[in-house]
Design goal:
Length: about 450
Amino acid sequence: MSTVRLYDTATRAVRDFQPLKKGEVSMYVCGATVQAAPHVGHIRSGVNFDILRRWLTASGYNVTFIRNVTDIDDKILHKAVHEEIPWWAVAMKYERAFALAYESLNVLPPTYEPRATGHITQMIELMEKLIENGSAYAPGNGDVYLEVRKLKSYLTLSNQKLDDLLPAGDADETYKRDPRDFALWKAAKPGDPSWPTPWGAGRPGWHLECSAMAHAYLGAEFDIHGGGLDLIFPHHENEIAQSQAAGYGFAKLWMHNAWVTTSGEKMSKSLGNSLQVMELLKRVRGIELRWYLGSAHYRSMLEFSFEALEESATAFRRVESFLQRAKELLGTIPNPAIAPEFAAVMNDDLSVPQGLALISDWQRTGNTALSNGDSQEVGKYAGYIRGALDILGCDPFDAAYNSNSGADLSSAVDGLIALLLEQREAARARKDFAAADSIRDRITAMGISIEDTPQGPRWSIN
């Protein structure tokens, strides 16, 4: 089993990954707060950590992957008022939207996907432990707070100073011993959902949810905690604070993916609906959108533009076209293989851009081998490309991209274009070149390119 090296936000260094239990990896990634349809900024995290999971699995680890759903939150309650439907209907509506987006981009389903509202008991148990050991307090108004000045260590992930922080701003400051103390539990407000506790009815604070769920599924200590860069503070800092105050070792390594930006700014829903995943899938296929979102290093900002998306999709289609031609020459789908040099760059903190450069090199070499009819070389490089694409979640032969309905449609399109190509060949045979050119122009106008090869004409999507 080769050594995987990953960047740890806590130590600010790339270090050898050593799991707590040999051969196994336990990983928790913060999932969606389901209060709106997902845009590509949301889904990038899903793609990035899916690549990590796939690489760890390919490296021989048995991976337990937890990605939660935050289905109770101020934003969800606000959206329920705006949409005039119950809060739980809002949560379910957008949870399904996220699930569809993940599926469309071939993000593997998590081992478990817990919802916050399904783990209130575990949250109450955690608060009881924190109050009992003096780390948290219930002032009598129904809220429960963590007393941050009592913590042995705090803010080590974001490297801030406590006295420099603004008030937490998550509850009425009147009852707090320090305005920086954050709410574990919020007292019920009229009309809001609530659950009974020893300190009064209310609902959980955001940070408490993830600590309780991570502990429930992965135990007191686990290997990797992931999420977006914007979660380092306050969310992940406060997860660490309350978990360690309860005596849990919590996460051993912290990983954060960077944002998708537009004009240098973090993408947000205020930009409108055009960057929602399902809207973009009207312009490109799921496999092409995933290729684009996964193309930058996970710790680098990805500056979104429609031009960059189209260029990326075109580049992927060339890779896809090579694999299709390789299949035709070999008479079978080439078997995937992990090239040593690809393994080396993935072991180096998931250096996907270097992996894409390797794919490009293999494609060029493979195209030369195709021209020479060298099936052995074609099979070798097509196998390397398929192996890399499988890790990136972009293998065009993956069943996830070839559902029954999709396969039927592809077969129908292939048959129709084959018929047109036969008509073109017949026109050329009778030297009716005007008719042959007219057929070719009609096919080209549909966004399909034709290549005349020694084995006959073949087509691909531009």
